[in-house]
Structure to design on (773 residues):
């Protein structure tokens, strides 16, 4: 069958099972947009290409399927660099297709030419310039394979206009679909090494103060159930990192919640004092470890990751296991069962008495809960944490929560109760302001039956709010709660604590823009909430609307800070629980 | 030692041989990974292999082995990198080639030719007052020769960067050790 390159590209996407793509056309990609009219693939026209990238990410987060975005050359391509970097940091499977100037014009500074392969080399798992129409099915198939296997990540495919333009003879190709990939340098390890897994089971059976340190890799490997089985089998408590919230239910008695810079005291301290950290799909990020040299000094480390480069990157593991989290955990469970059975037969005990450790954890939890005070007197400011708790308590249990970056993100991760995997979507590694609105749109597209709440900051909202126009136009009824503290709050917090309250360029204003009017101008329902007693009615109203997006402007206390906090670069032994403990945490 | 300064590769230098797919842009991918970690590449040689699908890149870097381990692991992650081997300089044969155009006035020409002979180089071009010499050998030998020629006046010099292969076994009692640590692709 003879096709032109543009048709071959769209057909290749169909062959990959793509049901939706996010994008915005332009000169160089025009010929690929034409066959979209005849394709069953749904195309969502964004208002800015960054939106397309984050929508693809949100879609991938929520569904586990690769997100797809398509943009034109030059500025279209550079506009999607931030989402690529974001997806790279958070290991999100995504395929981005960029138009490129015709082959003969490459390198001539042609109109809208940009060396996007060069620009995105370090922020993609792989990128490739297709040089011949005949290669299109093969390269697209490889792109999806690379994006979704091993450690997932973004792949960019750059397509010169001449090979997709039916008016150009270079675009002629004979259609085929490759039944395999030939990538001699790419063979991700799935199965863990049996000897290492035995070694790990042995360490687990000997540990007195073990903690499971679960990271985003659990979700990528779809290993939440396996994790739960391992935790219950061994009775070991679990911390879930910012990227792993929901990977283990917060309601589970073994759940310790989130560790790290704004983690809770018990999660942080359990790791510090543990004698065995079982790191599953986590990467010892600096926001988790604090000062690395002082992190969990007495702990042996079992580190499971599908990416061999993570093992020993930050902390040298005692037992390194390269492999897919799900496959490794399942093997580990078998080994642990075996050890337990052997111990039972010989009348011995399977593991040391961990009751004192478990009691210690419970005591910390009771002693150091997260806290805030919502006053109910006339003039008492509305607390952001209260808004989040009310959102949580008045929305469906399986609501998908998407956040921006800043204080509101930390409060959301702390105060929501994540009891299901894939209900928490945020930008962890790159910390991209503006992520929430488009990512929420992508999540809702992928999971139309679910309630999707973006909990956003006022600063973040202003970066990508235009995608609510997309949401209205495409009838994607997401809901947005702006925790409007009139500040770049997280930066303000650092200036307050570490720059002697010298507030440099962080004030935004509570009512410029007028968020309610702005929301309405974008086709959404807009609401404003200023008092605690208006919170629940507004949320109930928002949750009852399902035919258009809703935005609630919550005017919250601008003085509120995120606690607990471990100051950057300091040891996790110095958890600052609240303002009463001073700034330095000593 | 002048030689060390010339090649830049100190006693702790590492030799990586990287088998890559023979595709556009692969060299840029490899070298930018080193740049990103702030590692200086002292020499780099690329050539096709006997299999036309692949090229071999020989890279000499001078870093502690632990950061190097991170770089090699990151290199593995490049889709076009097929295999990486780290050669211990003590267990490797290293060779490099150099061409140098040196001042050789009638008064000094004899001395220059004598040194070329001693170093087993070859004169590949002759001008009125200059000679171009080709010399291949261990990098340190090239360093020494370069040093000696400097006294006469070098007007042009090019070195290829080194290539290396593991040293072969000779002593029967030695444990099998090819001197090449294959880091392979995991799995
Ligand atoms: C694109 C981008 N620019 C700058 C920053 C630095 N930064 C981190 S949090 C933050 C403040 C965010 O303000 P807002 O959205 O109002 O959230 P808040 O902290 O007030 O809840 C800034 C500027 C960032 N993370 N991303
Ligand atoms: Mg704010």
């Amino acid at each position: 069958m003879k096709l032109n390159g543009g048709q071959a590209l769209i057909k290749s996407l169909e062959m990959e099972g793509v049901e939706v793509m996010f994008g915005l056309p332009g000169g160089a990609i025009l010929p690929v947009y034409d066959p979209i009219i005849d394709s069953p693939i749904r195309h969502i026209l964004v208002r800015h290409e960054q939106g397309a990238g984050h929508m693809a990410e949100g879609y991938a987060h929520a569904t586990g399927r690769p997100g797809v975005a398509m943009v034109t050359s030059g500025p279209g391509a550079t506009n999607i660099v931030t989402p690529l970097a974001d997806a790279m940091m958070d290991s999100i499977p995504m395929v981005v297709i960029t138009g490129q100037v015709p082959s003969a014009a490459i390198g001539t500074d042609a109109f809208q030419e940009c060396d996007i392969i060069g620009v995105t080399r370090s922020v993609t798992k792989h990128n490739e310039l297709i040089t011949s129409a005949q290669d299109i099915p093969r390269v697209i198939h490889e792109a999806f394979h690379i994006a979704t296997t091993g450690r997932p990540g973004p792949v960019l495919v750059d397509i010169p206009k001449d090979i997709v333009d039916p008016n150009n003879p270079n675009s002629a190709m004979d259609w085929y679909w490759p039944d395999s990939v030939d990538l001699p340098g790419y063979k991700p390890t799935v199965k863990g090494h049996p000897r290492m897994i035995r070694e790990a089971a042995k360490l687990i059976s000997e540990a007195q103060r073990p903690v499971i340190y679960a990271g985003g890799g659990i979700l990528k490997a779809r290993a939440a159930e396996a994790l739960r089985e391992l935790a219950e089998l061994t009775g070991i408590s679990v911390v879930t990192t910012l990227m792993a919230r929901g990977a283990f239910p917060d309601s589970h008695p073994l759940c310790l919640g989130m560790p790290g810079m704004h983690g809770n005291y018990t999660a942080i301290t359990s790791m510090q004092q543990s004698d065995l950290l079982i790191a599953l799909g986590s990467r010892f990020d600096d926001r988790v470890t604090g000062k690395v040299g002082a992190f969990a000094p007495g702990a042996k480390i079992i580190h499971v990751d599908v990416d061999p480069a993570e093992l020993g990157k930050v902390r040298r593991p005692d037992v390194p296991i390269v492999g897919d989290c799900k496959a490794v955990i399942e093997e580990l469970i078998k080994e642990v069962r075996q050890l337990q059975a052997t111990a039972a037969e010989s009348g011995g005990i399977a593991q040391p008495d961990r009751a004192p450790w478990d009691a210690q954890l419970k005591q910390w939890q009771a002693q150091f809960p997260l806290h805030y005070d919502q006053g109910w007197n006339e003039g008492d400011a509305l607390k952001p944490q209260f808004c989040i708790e009310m959102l949580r308590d008045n929305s469906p249990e399986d609501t998908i929560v998407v956040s921006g970056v800043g204080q509101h993100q930390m409060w959301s991760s702390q105060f929501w109760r994540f009891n299901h995997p894939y209900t928490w979507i945020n930008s962890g590694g790159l910390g991209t302001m503006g992520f929430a609105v488009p990512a929420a749109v992508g999540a809702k597209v992928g999971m139309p039956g679910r309630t999707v709440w973006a909990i956003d900051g006022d600063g973040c909202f202003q970066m990508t709010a235009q995608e609510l126009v997309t949401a209205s136009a495409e009838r994607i009824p997401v809901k947005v709660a702006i925790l409007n503290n009139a500040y770049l709050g997280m930066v303000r917090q650092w200036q307050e604590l570490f720059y002697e309250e010298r507030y440099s360029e962080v004030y935004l204003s509570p009512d410029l823009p007028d968020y309610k009017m702005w929301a309405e101008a974008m086709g959404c329902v807009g609401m404003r909430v200023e008092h605690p007693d208006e919170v629940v009615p507004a949320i109930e109203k928002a949750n009852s609307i399902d035919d258009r997006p809703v935005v609630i402007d919550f005017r919250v206390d601008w003085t509120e800070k995120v606690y607990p906090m471990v100051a950057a670069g300091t040891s996790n032994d110095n958890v600052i629980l609240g303002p009463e403990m001073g700034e330095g945490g000593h | 030692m002048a030689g060390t300064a010339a090649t830049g590769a100190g006693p702790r230098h590492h030799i990586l041989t990287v088998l890559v797919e023979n595709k556009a842009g692969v060299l840029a991918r490899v070298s930018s990974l080193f740049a990103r970690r702030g590692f200086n590449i002292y020499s780099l040689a690329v050539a096709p292999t006997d299999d036309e699908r692949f090229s071999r890149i020989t890279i000499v870097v001078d870093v502690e082995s632990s950061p190097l381990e991170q770089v090699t692991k990151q290199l593995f992650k490049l889709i076009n990198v097929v295999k990486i081997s780290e050669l211990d300089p003590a267990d490797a044969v290293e060779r490099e080639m150099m061409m140098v155009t040196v001042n050789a006035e009638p008064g000094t020409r004899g001395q220059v030719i004598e040194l070329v002979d001693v170093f087993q180089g070859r004169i590949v071009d002759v001008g009125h007052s200059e000679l171009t010499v080709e010399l291949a050998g261990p990098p340190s030998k090239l360093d020494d020769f370069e040093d000696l020629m400097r006294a006469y006046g070098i007007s042009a010099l090019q070195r290829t960067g080194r290539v290396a292969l593991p040293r072969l076994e000779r002593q029967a009692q030695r444990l099998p050790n090819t001197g090449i640590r294959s880091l392979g692709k995991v799995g």
About this structure: Chain A has three domains: 2-174, 194-366, 384-562. The interface with chain B takes residues 117-118, 121-122, 125-126, 129, 146, 183-190, 307-309, 312-313, 322 of chain A (CB under 8 Å).
